[in-house]
Amino acid sequence: MKIDSSLPLEYSTEENRLKIFGFWIFLGAEIVLFATLFTVYFTLNTRTGSGPNGAEIFELTPVLWETFLLLTSSFTIGLGVHAMRIGNKKAMMAFFIITLLLGLGFLGIEIDEFVTYVDEGATIQTSAFLSALMTLLGTHGAHVTFGFFWGVAILIQVASRGLNPQTANKAFIFSLYWHFLDVVWIFIFSFVYLKGLIS
User: Under DSSP, is residue 125 helix (H, G, I), strand (E, B) or coil?
Assistant: First the structure.
């Protein structure tokens, strides 16, 4: 395996570069998935039937906290990648741990939000609007949950094997995934919650 020391560790082999390129292709498929979910939501968001609409169930405070936690986690994972690139394993792991804890905080608020909706009688069966909403939010939440466990697995590998082209490549690809989830959340925050609250 030929290592190009002039490149960042995660790009230092041809295999690593191909894996990163392949992951960008995978993210393209993820974009199609979420674009489809958004399209369904925008098609059905006025079909509330006898159930509540967004303005009646959305609460701005928890959504702002979710946004703060997820955007902050995007910043901390960026710091983690920077620490990885300068060879600081401890700092890299610390920033990745902070990122995952922020992700857990996000999931905790989202789960509480879903429980509140159900307590208020707003379930996935109540209306087409709520079905589309919960499918969109649930899919994003499932991705964050998967990301949490993926991040834990990477931390275990870095702790046991150190920073090398393989672990750096995995950590960098994970950071791309996490940033992608943050971008999707910005769209959810802007076009689902804010739009729903003012409509």
Answer: coil
CB half-sphere exposure, 83, CA atoms < 13 A? 18
Alpha-carbon dihedral of residues 133, 185, 183, 178, nearest 10 degrees? -110
The whole-angstrom separation of Cα 39 and Cα 44 is 9
What pTM did the predictor assign? 0.93
Radius of gyration of the chain (CA): 19
pLDDT tens digits along 154-165: 999 999 999 999
User: How far are the Cα atoms of 35, 41, 71, 121 from residue 30, in angstroms, in the given order?
Assistant: 8, 17, 19, 31
Instruction: Give the residue carrying structure tokens 């208020």.
Output: 120
Alpha-carbon dihedral sign for residues 113, 119, 124, 126: negative
Query: Would you say residue 4 has pLDDT above 90?
Result: no
Is the alpha carbon torsion for 196, 108, 106, 149 positive or negative?
A: negative
pLDDT for res 196: 86
